[in-house]
Amino acid sequence: MRRRQLSADELDMVMRLRQTGASWLKIQHETGIDRRTAMRAYERWERSRSIEELKNARIQVAATEFRNHLDSLTELAGSLVANLDVPSSLAEMEKNAEQFFFSLLEQDLLKRRISPGTGGDIYMMGDTQAFHTVDVLSNRRQQELLFYSLKVHTREEVQWEDILDKRWKEAKNNCSRLAPRLKKEAAEVVNNYLSQERPNLLPSIKDASRENDPMKQIVEVLLKELWRAIRLDKLDEEDSWFKTLLRGTGTPQEIVVKSRSGDETVFTFFGDSYKSLADKMTQICNLTANNLRKGDTAHKLHDEVSVMKKAAGELREMLNPIKLRPLILRTRCDLCPA
C-alpha cells in the first residue's frame, strides 16, 4: 500500500505542533494524521533542512575563502610592486634577481606579524622550551603559491615574461654586477686624488675632523650621492656636488663639507684655521664625483635603473587594485575555492 504524503498545510501543522513539544499521539489527535505518517514526514523535512543548511554553510565558507583569497592576492600584488622600486641603498643593488626574490618571499608580504631575523614571533613555554607562532617555510611556500596564482589570474592582461622575467630581472642582474664595480672605481679614484696631494693630507684630515678613516668616509658619501643622482635621473647635472659651509656661531667655528643634497656630511672641522683644508676636501670631492659621474659604469648603471623603473611602473599600473580585483573575480586558478 502506498504511503500517504502530507500536503504542505498538513506538514506545516505537524511542524508547528512538534516544535512546541507536542507528542506524536497529541499531533495525531489534533490533526487526524496517523502519528507514524506524521513522524516520517517530519523526519524527511528535518533531513532536507539539514542538507540545505549544510549547502548554504558551504556556500558561505566558499564565499569567505574566496574573499580572503582575493584580499591576499591584492595585498601580495601591492607588496610586490612596492619592492620592485629601485632601492635607496646602492648595497641592495648588489643582489641579483634570484637573491632578491628569495629574500622577498621570506618577508611579510601579506602584512602579518613576522619578526625580522627570526621569521616569526617566539615565545617561551615554561622556562626552557621555545615555540614559534609562524612556520617560516610554510609562510614562504604560501607566498610562492599565491604569486603563481596571481600570475594565473592576470596572464591575459599582464605580460609577466616580458615585464618581469626579461626586462626587470635582466636589468637587476646587470645592476648587481655594476654596483660593486662602481664602488671599486670610487675607492680607486678617491685614493688617486688624495695621493696626488701632499703626503700628510690624510693625517691632517683625520686630526681636524676626528674621523678614524677619512678615505672610507669620502667614498661612502660619494657613493650615496652618485646613487641618488642615478635614481633621480640627475647624473648629468654639472652643479657642484659638494660645498663648504660655516655652521653655528660658537667658538671654535664649525666648518662643514656637505653634499649638494644637504643630507650627507663628509667632514666637520672645528676652528677657522681649517677653512683651507675644508675647501681642499670640497674640491677633491667634487673632482672625484665629476670623474665618476662621467664614467662608463655610472652611465650603464643609470641605463639599467631606467629599465627597472619603467618595467616596475608598467607592472604597478596593471596591478592597481581598481583593475586587479575585477580581473581576479572573472578568472580562476587552482587555489580558488570551488
Describe the overall structure:
The protein has a domain of 141 residues. The protein is mainly α and 338 residues long. Helix 3 packs antiparallel against helix 10, helix 6 packs antiparallel against helix 8 and helix 6 packs antiparallel against helix 10. Strands 3-4-5 form a 3-stranded antiparallel sheet. A two-stranded antiparallel sheet has the order 1-2. It is elongated. The protein has 11 helices and 5 strands; from the N terminus they run H-H-H-H-E-E-H-H-H-H-E-E-E-H-H-H. Helices cover 62% and strands 8% of the residues.
Q: Could you give a quick summary of the protein structure above?
A:
The protein is mainly alpha-helical and 338 residues long.
Oligomer: single chain
Instruction: Please give the alpha-carbon distance between the first and last residues.
Output: 44 Å
How would a crystallographer describe the biggest sheet?
3 strands, antiparallel
Query: How many DSSP E strands?
Result: 5
Strand portion = 5-15%
Radius of gyration: 35 Å
Low-confidence stretches: 113-126
Q: What is the count of DSSP helices, taking H or I runs of 4+ residues?
A: 11
**Helix amount, in percent?**
55-70%
State the secondary-structure class.
Answer: mainly alpha
Overall residue-averaged pLDDT value: 82
Overall geometry: elongated
Q: What series of H and E elements makes up the topology?
A: HHHHEEHHHHEEEHHH
Strand order of the largest sheet: 3-4-5
